[in-house]
Write a structure and sequence with these properties.
The protein is mainly α. The chain is built from 8 helices and 4 strands. The protein is elongated.
């Protein structure tokens, strides 16, 4: 992916031009794919590479949720590798067109949208075969579980392993200052 310099906007227009590809086709250039929301809405600064990478990973996680299943904002953030970034998921859904936004709900299956948007989300989910329990999605049946990445096993030289071995060695050898531990109890016959 190319970096997003501040000069990406063509002079006097709203068209984005990639300085690397020297083109304006968002299908060919991965940088221009996110150009419409690359500017920060608060101060019109161009988004950093990390912000764009985060949005790409969130979009990829959202696209993994299949028809007939739902996921939560927090689960999407965790699947994208950013636990605790549920608000960024909401922001990405809001500014990216073409995503299956109806499949992302709040914790416990609650539809967080209000007004007509909430009715539309429920209607779209029901048309995909998702069932509800009252006002919430039946998460036992329709929650999409992302595959969890396996943790790398700790090496035998890790600090935690060394501390455990040290404690074990201290427990096995008698304490120097405590005579009760150094004497073995006599066996009764």
């Amino acid at each position: 992916m190319h970096a997003l310099p501040a000069e990406m906007l063509s002079a006097g227009t709203d068209a984005f031009v990639c300085p690397i590809c020297v083109g304006t086709d968002s299908l060919l250039c991965p940088t221009l794919r996110f150009a419409p929301f690359a500017a920060n809405s608060y101060n019109n600064q161009v988004a950093s590479h990390k912000e764009i990478q985060m949005r790409e990973r969130i979009v990829a996680a959202i696209r993994k949720v299949p028809r007939g299943y739902v996921s939560t904002y927090g689960a999407i953030a965790r699947a994208a590798g950013y636990p605790g970034a549920a608000r960024q998921v909401v922001r990405t859904l809001h500014i990216t067109a073409g995503l299956p936004w109806q499949r992302i709900v709040g914790a416990g299956g609650e539809i967080k949208l209000r007004g007509e948007s909430a009715f539309e989300q429920r209607f779209r989910l029901e048309s995909e075969g998702v069932t509800f329990r009252g006002r919430r999605v039946n998460m036992r049946v329709h929650e999409f579980k992302f595959a969890t990445a396996r943790k790398q096993p700790r090496s035998k030289n890790s600090a935690k392993t060394k501390r455990k071995l040290k404690r074990k060695a201290n427990l096995e050898s008698p304490a120097e200052g405590n005579p009760q531990q150094s004497q073995k109890p006599e066996a009764r016959s």
